[in-house]
Design a protein that fits this description.
Blueprint (H helix, E strand, L loop, with lengths): L4 H21 L17 H21 L15 H24 L10 H11 L9 H8 L33
Helix pairs in contact: 1-2, 1-3, 2-3, 3-4, 4-5
Protein name: Mycothiol-dependent maleylpyruvate isomerase metal-binding domain-containing protein
Organism: Streptomyces alkaliphilus
InterPro entries: DinB/YfiT-like (IPR034660), MDMPI_metal-binding (IPR024344)
Length: 173
């Protein structure tokens, strides 16, 4: 990846705000916000911004009824889809950042297996369960290879309600 740790944190923060705006904006792609975290933000400000964006995203998800829908390029997502995408972004990109910090003596981050299993099941329902759910999440997002399984290079989520999943993997329709 061509990201710095700071750019990964900015990306996740931006995405969490976009998810909140997209869910609040409804299923069309008509909203015209231009939000982004300043590229020159100090590390402490980046962390504070990430926390604030997470709280905003969670508040919008919590305030939305189950019938609410919002725009996403992978499908018109419901609140559970936005929640799962937000968790995926936080987990996978924090893992990325931790790897980037490992050479500097940092990088200690552990993904909850239960959360990894839930996020993978919600966003990648076509993938069978993998014994190590953290490896399953990272593999589904194209971060690692798993023996005997194809590399996930052009992965995508199913963020619309699971009831709308047609039972096939993307690209096989």
């Amino acid at each position: 990846m061509d990201f710095t740790v700071a750019s990964v944190i900015r990306h996740v923060t931006d995405v969490l705000l976009w998810y909140a705006l997209d869910l609040a904006g409804g299923p069309g792609d008509e909203i015209a916000f231009d939000n982004s975290v300043r590229a020159d933000a100090a590390p402490a400000a980046l962390v504070a911004s990430l926390g604030a964006a997470g709280r905003v995203c969670a508040a919008i998800i919590d305030a939305s009824g189950p019938e609410s829908r919002g725009f996403h390029p992978h499908g018109t997502a419901d609140p559970s889809g936005f929640a799962a995408m937000a968790c995926d972004e936080i987990l996978v990109h924090t893992h990325d950042a931790a790897l980037g910090l490992a050479g500097d003596g940092g990088g200690d981050f552990t993904i909850s297996p239960d959360l990894a299993r839930a996020v993978t099941a919600r966003l990648f329902p076509w993938h069978e369960s993998i014994p190590d759910p953290v490896e399953g999440l990272l593999w589904a997002n194209g971060r690692i290879d798993l023996p005997g399984r194809p590399r996930q290079e052009k992965w995508r989520w199913h963020c619309a309600p699971l009831a709308e999943w047609d039972g096939s993997a993307p690209g096989t329709r």
